Amino acid sequence: MNAPSETLFFQSETPFIQLSQPFVEKVTTQPLPQPYWITWNSRLAQSLHLSLTPTHQWLNVCAGHIDQAWCSVYSGHQFGVWAGQLGDGRAHLLGSVQGAQGHPLEIQIKGAGLTPFSRMGDGRAVLRSSIREYLASEAMAALHIPTTRALALVGSNLTVRRERLETAAVLTRLAPSFIRFGHLEHFAHRGRMAELVKLLDFVIQHHYPQVLDSDTPYIDLFEQIVSHTARLMAQWQAVGFCHGVMNTDNMSVLGITLDYGPFGFLDHFDWQHRCNHTDQQGRYAYDQQPQAGYWNCAALASAFWPLIADENLLADRLERFHERYQWSYLQLFRKKLGLRQEQKDDATLIKDLLDSLHAHQVDFTLFFRLLSDLTLARPELDSSLFAPLNRSISLFNLWLARYRQRLHQEESIDHLRQPQMKRTNPRFILRNYLAQQAIEQSMEGDFTMVKELKSVLDTPFDEHPEHEDWAALPPSWASEISVSCSS
Ligand code: AMP
Ligand code: MG
């Protein structure tokens, strides 16, 4: 079919496509046969002035019916080991749309067939993982965490083999750029300096113009990426998000959450929580994420190395990760606790709380949401307040007494602190079991839950009384769900 690209989005004006070879290759797609709508994100579409309703034109595009598409080459470190060339094995870049802030957003479809970088893969994505990415990326956006966005989800009866036979889907996702650490590593590792410089200049020009006039643009760019990554790690920790596959090919140079695979949000708080069951060493466990983010920045530093005369300068900028992470982490957790002032013992107050949540397997999201309703002068109300946690309040008495004292010190006022905390501590997150239920219903051809869940997760700080059960403790079978890399 003829691409309706002129009317729907721009191809020739997409800067990354203009970069051309060897960065991007023109490819053809293998559209999903007999595609049908699973869902169209009309909320996102509206903010981008795209069609409010799912049109036939978009169905075709989102299924891969397009004359031209592009994919890009990257490499990366996977689980700490250099993996060599990877690349867009099942993601096709179509072009771009005008973003809400005036900056273009690239459109990728994921699962529309083989590319030159598919290696052993089939170029497809299964319905299960596509639903998870759709819901998670939109949930993260609503939690104000930088992320790729999801515009549409299209299904088909085409079968694909994973551990078992499943059906295929295509996710349409958007981002200002999908450039990964691995894109830079690719050219650096091969000693292709002219291309590395071209790519770095591209990233600066289009995504970090603030360093354009610097005397040391590459060092400053590196520092920006380190800083954005550190901030993102703190945001993940504060909302209990585990990525699961933090390889350098899944790390965005913009510091946005990218490539949702075996991710998971914490139910009960567990420092060592592993959402990816193939990660046997726990390299990407919850408490390892900041360190993994730093490690990835160190790997990225090697890509900058040949261009920087003073290696100490690069090492110095890398080390700023820790300070930036710690600052963001404390800032986010202070906000979660409704603290306006900074005090030197705050880190201990936070750590002691989390240790206690860990020791008693307390639900992370629910705890902070209930804490948002704490009445400063009425400790006797605590036991009914925290009753939904299904834990004895005596476990927290000591900590709550310290917390109250801390609130008193800054003369905290209930009716000001409570709403602010409720805008910070979500009532709804994409719990694994909810995603699972939505997937199981979708496999039966019923997409209602995908849409309803998405709509609740769009405003996760609101009450949504009709979906009260989604905010409650997860059912006991939730901990049995096992998520692997297969997608
Ligand atoms: P991931 O672990 O999903 O980040 O993927 C790592 C690499 O494998 C990337 O180059 C992907 O494009 C590629 N890949 C993953 N799944 C497939 C698939 N089904 N077909 C082709 N390439 C894939
Ligand atoms: Mg990936």
Please explain how this structure is put together.
The protein has 487 residues and is α+β, with helices and mostly antiparallel strands. It has 3 domains: 6-53 and 60-178, no CATH class; 182-334, no CATH class; 339-422, no CATH class. It has helices spanning 5-8, 15-19, 42-47, 56-62, 127-142, 181-189, 193-207, 217-239, 289-304, 311-337, 346-359, 364-371, 382-385, 397-409, 414-422, 432-443, 448-458, 468-471, and strands spanning 24-27, 36-40, 69-72, 75-78, 81-85, 91-98, 104-110, 125-126, 149-161, 165-175, 241-242, 264-265. The strands form 4 sheets. Strands 2, 6, 7, 8, 9 and 10 form a 6-stranded antiparallel sheet that branches. β6 and β7 (104-110) form a beta hairpin. Mean pLDDT is 96; it is low at 1-6. The structure holds adenosine monophosphate (AMP) and magnesium ion.
